[in-house]
Design brief:
Strand order of the largest sheet: 3-2-4-5-6
Shape: globular
Helix content: 40-55%
Distance between the termini: 14 Å
Strand content: 15-25%
Number of strands: 18
CATH architecture of the largest domain: Alpha-Beta Complex
Number of domains: 4
Radius of gyration: 25 Å
Largest sheet: 5 strands, parallel
Number of helices: 18
CATH topology of the largest domain: inorganic pyrophosphatase (n-terminal core)
Length: 570
């Protein structure tokens, strides 16, 4: 994989302006300007974002129609069904909307399809075989529905109204009662960065206000929506959407709620994930909490995760959390097996790596794991990847991409080969007849080749600043923490240092390297503890690094905090 190190060169005047207005270090000012924050005022708004800065979501297309219809369903005690997706985004959105409607006294239930047996989205059989026989009068989808034309048509035929809440690309919305999707071409309200749980939260905000305007809360307590921000945080980080504007505001609030442990199921999940003794952050959601929630839909059924988040009894919550932890271990083992199988195949077939894309299929792969494995393959070979589990004449696949290659757009060019497809620029899924896989492999390769240049296949290592060790201080570490939460569109700052000596080294857990580093150009320069994760344990340890890319952070453990460098590239 080609790597290209690029150091930001922000405008000096802008950096000095932010530094003076914010009274921060020059390094901090550079980082803010690198993130297109060009004044002290904007920096303060970014660093101190709060709920009071939120814009109301009432103007999102079809929101007014949706809240009126749901209000009628509540007061008339119609049967409402929340239909969600089986990933962490869909699970949290399903939980949020179900709990809010329960607080209104609505007759509400939820349904999440089985990933393997039913597949993604609302099917016409869900209408004819489940909703209609159970007397459902209103269906609200969360994190799905924008491309489910057949199901909506069947519901219309049977007199069932459907409100779609979703965030996936929607070139041609179904003929539903309402389609709340900020990515609609005719929606100018903003909020296109919301995950599915964000769209669900926007609906809850708007519905609560409509109920208030109609005097609904006079005889019952009005829900405090801050209590739902933990669900918002889980789903938003898990879906890797941009952490900007309302997403940043609600995520910060959500982390506060998560760490206050006011949800029994989440407290159990924190405990089983080893987070009971620390403050969870966005990184913990992404690497510890979300994988366990996702494991339910990948290895079993996602309703287990919803049951955990809605649990009221601590004993039940601990049991479910233990089940999710076991499922996550199974997921990890399955992921390792599939990844090893693919790497062995590519080692024997190196010609595959001369292509711009990788499309691989196998009948024994577990389809619930393929998106994760595709991400690992992209990390290693840096090109768009599709992995397909092909059984009984049908293939179900997941794809991941690299920056600048729009996966959804690429799939659209091959759409005649699919039974179904959908997703985003960086992640997508498809269903295909096995006899069409070879044709897809070739057309996908040609499509991507025509829309890219060689620069797309180099991993860009974006360096915020070259940082000599003598400039690393406790003040800097404290300043960097104010930039949290880190994630998509707000990456954790990455620095570069040159001529670094390794004065101590020890392997941890087989593939992590703990080190003490010092810059060689100055005998009296500071030494820092450092750790490098997921390395090849058989690779020789150099006594010297020509350059390193690293992050600076506090390592907190058992009431102590120590400065630590996280080595990302050498």
């Amino acid at each position: 994989m080609k790597k290209e190190w690029k150091t930001y060169t922000p405008n000096f005047r802008l950096v000095e302006k932010v530094r003076a207005q914010l009274n921060c270090s020059p390094i901090m000012a550079k980082i803010l300007v690198n993130r297109r924050i060009y004044s002290g005022e904007k920096a303060a708004a970014f660093l101190n974002a709060s709920l009071t800065d939120m814009r109301p979501p009432f103007a999102i297309k079809d929101m007014d129609k949706a809240v009126r219809r749901i209000y009628d369903a509540i007061v008339q005690q119609e049967k409402i069904l929340i239909f969600g997706d089986y990933d962490a985004d869909g699970i949290t959105a399903t939980t949020m909307l179900s709990e809010f409607l329960q607080e209104t006294g609505a007759d509400v239930s939820y349904y999440i399809p089985h990933r393997t047996n039913e597949g993604y989205g609302l099917q016409d059989t869900h209408i004819s075989d489940y909703a209609a026989p159970n007397g459902i009068q209103l269906i609200i989808t969360v994190d799905c529905g924008s491309s489910d034309h057949k199901a909506v048509d069947k519901a219309n035929e049977l007199g069932i109204d459907i409100i779609i809440t979703d965030h996936h690309s929607v070139p041609n919305p179904p003929n539903a009662f309402a389609v709340i999707n900020p990515k609609r071409k005719d929606c100018s309200a903003g909020f296109a960065y919301f995950a599915g749980v964000g769209v669900a939260f926007a609906l809850v905000v708007s519905l609560r206000k409509y109920l208030r305007d109609n005097g609904f809360w006079q005889n019952r307590p009005e829900p405090n929506l801050k209590n739902y921000c933990d669900l918002f945080a889980l789903g938003t980080v898990a879906d890797m959407v941009p952490l900007i504007d309302e997403n940043r505001i609600l995520l910060k609030t959500g982390l506060e709620v998560i760490n206050s442990a006011n949800r029994v199921g989440l407290e159990a999940l924190l405990k089983i994930s080893g987070l009971a003794q620390k403050e969870a952050d966005a990184e913990d959601i992404g690497f510890k909490l979300a994988p366990r929630l996702n494991a339910a839909g990948r290895m079993g059924h996602a309703h287990i995760a919803v049951e955990l988040l809605m649990a009221k009894d601590s004993r039940q919550a601990n049991q479910i959390a233990g089940t999710l932890d076991e499922m996550n271990c199974q997921r990890q083992e399955t992921e390792k097996r599939i990844l090893a199988h693919i790497l062995a195949y590519l080692d024997k077939n190196p010609g595959m790596l001369t292509r711009k894309t990788l499309v691989l299929a196998h009948p024994e792969w577990h389809e619930g794991i393929l998106g994760i494995v595709a991400s690992r393959i992209v990390e290693k070979y840096f090109r768009p990847v599709f992995l397909i589990a092909a059984k009984n004449g049908v293939g179900k696949g997941s794809g991941r991409s690299v920056p600048g290659v729009d996966l959804y757009q690429s799939l659209s060019a091959c759409s005649e080969l699919f039974e179904d497809f959908g997703g985003h620029a960086m992640a997508a899924g498809l269903q295909i007849r096995t006899e069409n896989i070879r044709a897809f492999r070739e057309k996908f390769e040609l499509t991507v080749e025509n829309m890219t240049t060689e620069s797309h296949y180099s991993k860009i290592i974006s360096i915020d600043d070259e940082l000599d060790f003598h400039h690393i201080s406790e003040r800097l570490a404290d300043e960097l923490e104010t930039l949290k939460p880190f994630g998509t569109d707000n990456p954790e700052p990455l620095f570069m240092a040159q001529n670094v000596a390794v004065t101590y080294s020890k392997m941890l857990n087989g593939n992590h390297r703990k080190m003490v580093l010092r810059q060689e150009k100055n005998k009296h320069s500071k030494s820092f503890m450092a750790i490098q994760f997921h390395i090849n344990p058989s690779a020789p340890l150099p006594e010297h690094f020509e350059k390193i890319a690293f992050r600076v952070k506090w390592n907190r453990w058992q009431g102590r905090k120590d400065m630590q460098l996280i080595i990302e590239e050498t």
